[in-house]
Amino acid sequence: MHWLPCGTYNVNYRQDFAIFRTIPHWISLIVFLTLMAVMPFLVGRYILSLLTVTCITIIAVQGLGILTGFAGQISLGQAAFMGTGAYISVILYQRFSVPFPLALFCAGFGTGLLGILFGIPAVRIKGFYLAMSTLAAQLILGWLFLHLRGITGGTEGLHVEYATVMGITFDTLAEKYWLVMACTAVMVYFAKNLMRTRVGRALVAIRDNDLAAKVMGIEVSMYKLLAFFLSCFFAGISGGLFAFYIDFINPVQFTLLDSILYLGILIVGGMGSIMGPIFGAVSMKLIEEFAFFSSPTLTSWFPAFGAQIFAALSLALYSVIIILFLVLEPRGINHLWSILKNRYRIYPFPY
Protein backbone atom coordinates (compact mmCIF):
# COMPACT_ATOMS: atom_id res chain seq x y z
CA MET A 1 0.00 0.00 0.00
CA HIS A 2 1.38 3.39 -0.93
CA TRP A 3 0.46 6.93 -0.11
CA LEU A 4 1.01 8.91 -3.32
CA PRO A 5 0.16 12.54 -4.13
CA CYS A 6 -1.71 11.65 -7.31
CA GLY A 7 -3.23 8.27 -8.04
CA THR A 8 -2.65 4.77 -6.64
CA TYR A 9 -0.14 2.56 -8.41
CA ASN A 10 0.27 -1.20 -8.14
CA VAL A 11 3.73 -2.73 -8.21
CA ASN A 12 2.75 -6.41 -8.15
CA TYR A 13 -0.17 -8.67 -9.07
CA ARG A 14 -1.25 -9.13 -5.47
CA GLN A 15 -1.92 -5.41 -5.14
CA ASP A 16 -3.62 -5.31 -8.52
CA PHE A 17 -6.09 -8.07 -7.62
CA ALA A 18 -6.79 -6.89 -4.08
CA ILE A 19 -10.36 -5.79 -3.42
CA PHE A 20 -9.26 -3.20 -0.87
CA ARG A 21 -6.08 -1.68 -2.20
CA THR A 22 -5.21 1.20 0.07
CA ILE A 23 -5.26 2.13 3.74
CA PRO A 24 -8.22 4.53 3.24
CA HIS A 25 -10.14 1.61 1.69
CA TRP A 26 -9.60 -0.54 4.77
CA ILE A 27 -10.44 2.29 7.14
CA SER A 28 -13.65 3.04 5.24
CA LEU A 29 -14.64 -0.63 5.30
CA ILE A 30 -14.05 -1.00 9.04
CA VAL A 31 -15.94 2.21 9.82
CA PHE A 32 -18.86 1.22 7.59
CA LEU A 33 -19.20 -2.30 9.01
CA THR A 34 -18.93 -0.96 12.57
CA LEU A 35 -21.62 1.62 11.87
CA MET A 36 -23.93 -1.00 10.38
CA ALA A 37 -23.33 -3.33 13.34
CA VAL A 38 -24.28 -0.70 15.95
CA MET A 39 -27.22 0.61 13.93
CA PRO A 40 -29.85 -1.04 16.22
CA PHE A 41 -28.56 1.17 19.06
CA LEU A 42 -28.71 4.35 16.96
CA VAL A 43 -32.03 4.22 15.11
CA GLY A 44 -35.63 3.29 15.83
CA ARG A 45 -37.59 0.25 14.76
CA TYR A 46 -38.88 1.86 11.57
CA ILE A 47 -35.42 2.68 10.17
CA LEU A 48 -34.08 -0.68 11.32
CA SER A 49 -36.89 -2.50 9.53
CA LEU A 50 -36.20 -0.45 6.41
CA LEU A 51 -32.51 -1.36 6.52
CA THR A 52 -33.34 -5.05 6.93
CA VAL A 53 -35.65 -5.10 3.92
CA THR A 54 -33.06 -3.19 1.89
CA CYS A 55 -30.39 -5.79 2.70
CA ILE A 56 -32.73 -8.60 1.63
CA THR A 57 -33.44 -6.75 -1.61
CA ILE A 58 -29.72 -6.29 -2.25
CA ILE A 59 -29.17 -10.06 -2.16
CA ALA A 60 -32.00 -10.71 -4.63
CA VAL A 61 -30.89 -7.97 -7.03
CA GLN A 62 -27.26 -9.06 -6.70
CA GLY A 63 -28.26 -12.45 -8.08
CA LEU A 64 -30.17 -10.79 -10.90
CA GLY A 65 -27.10 -8.68 -11.57
CA ILE A 66 -24.99 -11.80 -12.10
CA LEU A 67 -27.51 -13.12 -14.62
CA THR A 68 -28.42 -9.91 -16.44
CA GLY A 69 -25.54 -7.53 -15.80
CA PHE A 70 -22.64 -9.96 -16.17
CA ALA A 71 -24.02 -12.84 -18.26
CA GLY A 72 -26.31 -10.76 -20.48
CA GLN A 73 -29.39 -12.93 -19.87
CA ILE A 74 -32.73 -11.60 -18.68
CA SER A 75 -35.18 -12.84 -16.09
CA LEU A 76 -38.68 -11.74 -15.16
CA GLY A 77 -39.11 -14.38 -12.48
CA GLN A 78 -36.76 -13.32 -9.69
CA ALA A 79 -39.60 -12.75 -7.22
CA ALA A 80 -41.00 -16.23 -7.88
CA PHE A 81 -37.59 -17.75 -7.21
CA MET A 82 -37.45 -15.76 -3.98
CA GLY A 83 -40.78 -17.32 -3.06
CA THR A 84 -39.40 -20.77 -3.84
CA GLY A 85 -36.49 -20.19 -1.48
CA ALA A 86 -38.83 -18.88 1.21
CA TYR A 87 -41.10 -21.93 1.10
CA ILE A 88 -38.20 -24.42 0.92
CA SER A 89 -36.42 -22.92 3.91
CA VAL A 90 -39.59 -22.70 6.03
CA ILE A 91 -40.75 -26.23 5.21
CA LEU A 92 -37.32 -27.76 5.90
CA TYR A 93 -36.92 -25.82 9.14
CA GLN A 94 -40.41 -26.34 10.58
CA ARG A 95 -41.60 -29.68 9.22
CA PHE A 96 -38.32 -31.59 9.00
CA SER A 97 -36.39 -29.86 11.83
CA VAL A 98 -33.44 -29.04 9.59
CA PRO A 99 -31.05 -26.56 11.28
CA PHE A 100 -31.59 -23.02 10.08
CA PRO A 101 -28.21 -22.49 8.34
CA LEU A 102 -28.60 -25.78 6.45
CA ALA A 103 -32.24 -25.03 5.61
CA LEU A 104 -31.23 -21.63 4.24
CA PHE A 105 -28.44 -23.14 2.14
CA CYS A 106 -30.77 -25.87 0.84
CA ALA A 107 -33.28 -23.15 -0.08
CA GLY A 108 -30.64 -21.42 -2.17
CA PHE A 109 -29.33 -24.64 -3.71
CA GLY A 110 -32.80 -26.03 -4.46
CA THR A 111 -33.90 -22.76 -6.01
CA GLY A 112 -30.71 -22.76 -8.08
CA LEU A 113 -31.53 -26.21 -9.46
CA LEU A 114 -35.02 -24.99 -10.31
CA GLY A 115 -33.43 -22.01 -12.04
CA ILE A 116 -31.41 -24.36 -14.24
CA LEU A 117 -34.65 -26.03 -15.30
CA PHE A 118 -36.22 -22.74 -16.37
CA GLY A 119 -32.89 -21.55 -17.78
CA ILE A 120 -32.60 -24.40 -20.29
CA PRO A 121 -34.35 -22.30 -23.01
CA ALA A 122 -31.49 -19.76 -22.66
CA VAL A 123 -29.27 -22.26 -24.46
CA ARG A 124 -31.21 -21.69 -27.68
CA ILE A 125 -33.03 -18.38 -27.32
CA LYS A 126 -32.21 -14.89 -26.12
CA GLY A 127 -33.64 -11.37 -25.75
CA PHE A 128 -37.42 -10.99 -25.86
CA TYR A 129 -38.03 -14.72 -26.20
CA LEU A 130 -35.94 -15.49 -23.13
CA ALA A 131 -37.87 -12.83 -21.22
CA MET A 132 -41.11 -14.62 -22.09
CA SER A 133 -39.61 -17.92 -20.95
CA THR A 134 -38.71 -16.53 -17.54
CA LEU A 135 -42.10 -14.84 -17.36
CA ALA A 136 -43.57 -18.32 -17.66
CA ALA A 137 -41.51 -19.32 -14.61
CA GLN A 138 -43.02 -16.45 -12.64
CA LEU A 139 -46.56 -17.42 -13.60
CA ILE A 140 -46.10 -21.18 -13.11
CA LEU A 141 -44.45 -20.85 -9.71
CA GLY A 142 -47.02 -18.29 -8.61
CA TRP A 143 -49.79 -20.70 -9.56
CA LEU A 144 -48.10 -23.51 -7.61
CA PHE A 145 -47.70 -21.31 -4.53
CA LEU A 146 -51.41 -20.60 -4.66
CA HIS A 147 -52.78 -24.08 -5.33
CA LEU A 148 -50.44 -26.46 -3.46
CA ARG A 149 -52.30 -25.76 -0.25
CA GLY A 150 -50.97 -28.81 1.57
CA ILE A 151 -47.42 -27.53 1.15
CA THR A 152 -47.61 -23.75 0.86
CA GLY A 153 -50.83 -23.06 2.75
CA GLY A 154 -52.39 -21.42 -0.32
CA THR A 155 -53.89 -17.99 0.24
CA GLU A 156 -53.68 -18.49 4.01
CA GLY A 157 -49.89 -18.74 3.81
CA LEU A 158 -47.51 -20.11 6.39
CA HIS A 159 -46.59 -18.74 9.80
CA VAL A 160 -42.84 -18.88 10.33
CA GLU A 161 -41.14 -19.75 13.58
CA TYR A 162 -38.13 -17.80 14.82
CA ALA A 163 -34.77 -18.85 13.42
CA THR A 164 -32.35 -20.51 15.86
CA VAL A 165 -28.60 -20.77 15.27
CA MET A 166 -26.32 -22.48 17.83
CA GLY A 167 -28.90 -22.04 20.56
CA ILE A 168 -29.45 -18.34 19.78
CA THR A 169 -33.03 -17.48 18.83
CA PHE A 170 -33.41 -14.51 16.50
CA ASP A 171 -36.75 -13.26 17.80
CA THR A 172 -36.17 -9.50 18.03
CA LEU A 173 -35.90 -7.00 15.22
CA ALA A 174 -32.30 -6.15 16.10
CA GLU A 175 -31.25 -9.81 16.06
CA LYS A 176 -32.99 -10.37 12.72
CA TYR A 177 -31.23 -7.31 11.36
CA TRP A 178 -27.83 -8.65 12.42
CA LEU A 179 -28.60 -12.01 10.82
CA VAL A 180 -29.68 -10.44 7.54
CA MET A 181 -26.78 -7.98 7.51
CA ALA A 182 -24.24 -10.75 8.07
CA CYS A 183 -25.74 -12.84 5.25
CA THR A 184 -25.78 -9.81 2.96
CA ALA A 185 -22.09 -9.10 3.61
CA VAL A 186 -21.20 -12.74 2.87
CA MET A 187 -23.25 -12.87 -0.34
CA VAL A 188 -21.89 -9.56 -1.67
CA TYR A 189 -18.33 -10.67 -0.90
CA PHE A 190 -19.02 -13.99 -2.64
CA ALA A 191 -20.38 -12.20 -5.72
CA LYS A 192 -17.41 -9.82 -5.80
CA ASN A 193 -14.88 -12.65 -5.72
CA LEU A 194 -16.88 -14.78 -8.16
CA MET A 195 -16.71 -12.09 -10.82
CA ARG A 196 -12.91 -12.02 -10.48
CA THR A 197 -12.57 -15.73 -11.27
CA ARG A 198 -12.60 -17.62 -14.55
CA VAL A 199 -16.36 -18.05 -14.19
CA GLY A 200 -16.93 -14.31 -13.97
CA ARG A 201 -14.70 -13.59 -16.96
CA ALA A 202 -16.51 -16.27 -18.97
CA LEU A 203 -19.91 -14.76 -18.14
CA VAL A 204 -18.74 -11.32 -19.25
CA ALA A 205 -17.38 -12.78 -22.48
CA ILE A 206 -20.73 -14.43 -23.19
CA ARG A 207 -22.51 -11.15 -22.48
CA ASP A 208 -20.30 -9.21 -24.88
CA ASN A 209 -20.35 -11.75 -27.72
CA ASP A 210 -21.41 -15.34 -27.15
CA LEU A 211 -20.16 -16.44 -30.60
CA ALA A 212 -16.67 -15.07 -29.93
CA ALA A 213 -16.75 -16.67 -26.48
CA LYS A 214 -17.55 -20.04 -28.03
CA VAL A 215 -14.70 -19.66 -30.52
CA MET A 216 -12.33 -19.02 -27.58
CA GLY A 217 -13.32 -22.37 -26.08
CA ILE A 218 -15.91 -21.25 -23.51
CA GLU A 219 -18.79 -23.69 -22.99
CA VAL A 220 -21.51 -21.11 -23.59
CA SER A 221 -24.44 -23.40 -22.76
CA MET A 222 -22.91 -24.55 -19.47
CA TYR A 223 -22.07 -21.04 -18.32
CA LYS A 224 -25.52 -19.73 -19.21
CA LEU A 225 -27.09 -22.42 -17.05
CA LEU A 226 -24.56 -21.67 -14.31
CA ALA A 227 -25.61 -18.00 -14.45
CA PHE A 228 -29.23 -19.03 -13.90
CA PHE A 229 -28.19 -21.28 -11.04
CA LEU A 230 -26.24 -18.49 -9.33
CA SER A 231 -29.01 -15.95 -9.84
CA CYS A 232 -31.63 -18.27 -8.37
CA PHE A 233 -29.27 -19.30 -5.56
CA PHE A 234 -29.10 -15.66 -4.47
CA ALA A 235 -32.87 -15.36 -4.86
CA GLY A 236 -33.41 -18.45 -2.70
CA ILE A 237 -31.19 -17.10 0.08
CA SER A 238 -32.97 -13.76 -0.10
CA GLY A 239 -36.39 -15.40 0.03
CA GLY A 240 -35.41 -17.55 3.01
CA LEU A 241 -34.18 -14.52 4.94
CA PHE A 242 -37.34 -12.62 4.04
CA ALA A 243 -39.53 -15.42 5.37
CA PHE A 244 -37.78 -15.53 8.74
CA TYR A 245 -37.75 -11.76 8.96
CA ILE A 246 -41.43 -11.18 8.19
CA ASP A 247 -42.62 -14.28 10.17
CA PHE A 248 -45.29 -14.99 7.55
CA ILE A 249 -45.31 -15.82 3.84
CA ASN A 250 -48.02 -16.15 1.23
CA PRO A 251 -48.13 -16.01 -2.61
CA VAL A 252 -49.03 -12.30 -2.85
CA GLN A 253 -45.57 -11.37 -1.53
CA PHE A 254 -43.83 -12.68 -4.67
CA THR A 255 -45.59 -11.13 -7.66
CA LEU A 256 -44.64 -10.25 -11.23
CA LEU A 257 -44.57 -6.58 -10.26
CA ASP A 258 -41.81 -7.35 -7.75
CA SER A 259 -39.78 -9.13 -10.44
CA ILE A 260 -40.08 -6.11 -12.72
CA LEU A 261 -39.14 -3.82 -9.85
CA TYR A 262 -35.96 -5.82 -9.18
CA LEU A 263 -34.99 -5.39 -12.82
CA GLY A 264 -35.64 -1.66 -12.50
CA ILE A 265 -33.48 -1.50 -9.37
CA LEU A 266 -30.65 -3.13 -11.31
CA ILE A 267 -31.02 -0.60 -14.14
CA VAL A 268 -30.92 2.37 -11.76
CA GLY A 269 -27.98 1.01 -9.78
CA GLY A 270 -25.97 -0.06 -12.79
CA MET A 271 -25.60 -3.38 -14.58
CA GLY A 272 -22.33 -5.24 -14.74
CA SER A 273 -21.13 -4.15 -11.30
CA ILE A 274 -21.28 -5.40 -7.72
CA MET A 275 -22.09 -1.97 -6.28
CA GLY A 276 -24.94 -1.42 -8.74
CA PRO A 277 -27.54 -3.54 -6.89
CA ILE A 278 -26.56 -1.84 -3.62
CA PHE A 279 -26.96 1.67 -5.04
CA GLY A 280 -30.19 0.69 -6.79
CA ALA A 281 -31.82 -0.94 -3.76
CA VAL A 282 -30.97 1.98 -1.46
CA SER A 283 -32.16 4.55 -4.02
CA MET A 284 -35.46 2.81 -4.69
CA LYS A 285 -36.17 2.39 -0.98
CA LEU A 286 -35.54 6.10 -0.47
CA ILE A 287 -37.95 6.88 -3.31
CA GLU A 288 -40.56 4.61 -1.72
CA GLU A 289 -40.15 6.39 1.62
CA PHE A 290 -40.48 9.77 -0.09
CA ALA A 291 -43.73 8.62 -1.67
CA PHE A 292 -44.98 7.32 1.68
CA PHE A 293 -44.33 10.53 3.61
CA SER A 294 -45.56 12.84 0.84
CA SER A 295 -48.81 10.91 0.32
CA PRO A 296 -50.76 12.62 3.18
CA THR A 297 -49.95 16.03 1.73
CA LEU A 298 -50.98 14.98 -1.76
CA THR A 299 -54.14 13.38 -0.39
CA SER A 300 -55.13 16.70 1.21
CA TRP A 301 -54.53 18.43 -2.11
CA PHE A 302 -56.36 15.80 -4.17
CA PRO A 303 -58.96 14.17 -1.86
CA ALA A 304 -60.63 12.38 -4.77
CA PHE A 305 -57.70 9.95 -5.00
CA GLY A 306 -57.95 8.91 -1.37
CA ALA A 307 -55.53 6.38 0.11
CA GLN A 308 -54.72 4.91 -3.31
CA ILE A 309 -52.44 7.83 -4.09
CA PHE A 310 -49.49 6.18 -2.31
CA ALA A 311 -49.46 3.14 -4.60
CA ALA A 312 -49.94 5.32 -7.67
CA LEU A 313 -47.21 7.76 -6.62
CA SER A 314 -44.73 4.97 -5.88
CA LEU A 315 -45.22 3.33 -9.26
CA ALA A 316 -45.12 6.69 -11.05
CA LEU A 317 -41.85 7.67 -9.36
CA TYR A 318 -40.31 4.26 -10.08
CA SER A 319 -41.28 4.53 -13.73
CA VAL A 320 -39.99 8.07 -14.16
CA ILE A 321 -36.69 7.31 -12.42
CA ILE A 322 -36.07 4.20 -14.53
CA ILE A 323 -36.87 6.05 -17.77
CA LEU A 324 -34.59 8.94 -16.83
CA PHE A 325 -31.71 6.58 -16.12
CA LEU A 326 -32.27 4.65 -19.34
CA VAL A 327 -32.15 7.90 -21.33
CA LEU A 328 -29.63 10.01 -19.43
CA GLU A 329 -27.38 7.51 -17.63
CA PRO A 330 -27.93 3.94 -18.87
CA ARG A 331 -24.91 2.71 -16.90
CA GLY A 332 -26.60 3.67 -13.63
CA ILE A 333 -25.50 5.22 -10.38
CA ASN A 334 -22.43 3.01 -10.24
CA HIS A 335 -21.00 4.77 -13.29
CA LEU A 336 -21.42 8.15 -11.61
CA TRP A 337 -19.75 6.73 -8.51
CA SER A 338 -16.84 5.46 -10.63
CA ILE A 339 -16.37 8.92 -12.15
CA LEU A 340 -16.30 10.46 -8.68
CA LYS A 341 -13.74 7.91 -7.47
CA ASN A 342 -11.52 8.46 -10.49
CA ARG A 343 -11.56 12.20 -9.93
CA TYR A 344 -10.52 11.63 -6.33
CA ARG A 345 -7.74 9.23 -7.26
CA ILE A 346 -6.02 11.62 -9.68
CA TYR A 347 -6.48 14.73 -7.54
CA PRO A 348 -5.22 17.48 -7.91
CA PHE A 349 -5.26 16.80 -11.67
CA PRO A 350 -8.94 15.81 -12.26
CA TYR A 351 -8.84 16.90 -15.90
| Number of DSSP strand runs | 4
Please tell me the total number of domains.
2
Strand order of the largest sheet: 1-4
Helix content: over 70%
- Helical run tally: 16
Biggest sheet features: 2 strands, antiparallel
Can you offer a commentary on this structure?
The protein has 351 residues and is an all-alpha fold. It folds into 2 domains: 1-37, no CATH class; 38-345, no CATH class. 72% of the residues lie in helices and 3% in strands. It contains 16 helices and 4 strands. The chain has helices at residues 13-17, 23-37, 39-42, 45-70, 78-95, 100-119, 128-147, 149-152, 173-194, 198-208, 210-215, 220-246, 256-269, 275-301, 309-328, 332-345; strands at 158-159, 163-165, 168-170, 248-249. The longest helix has 27 residues, at 220-246.
Provide key terms for this protein:
disordered N terminus, 351 residues, two-stranded antiparallel sheet, 3% strand, mainly alpha
Task: Produce a short descriptive summary.
With 351 residues, the chain is mostly helical. It is built from 16 helices and four strands. It folds into two domains: 1-37, no CATH class; 38-345, no CATH class.
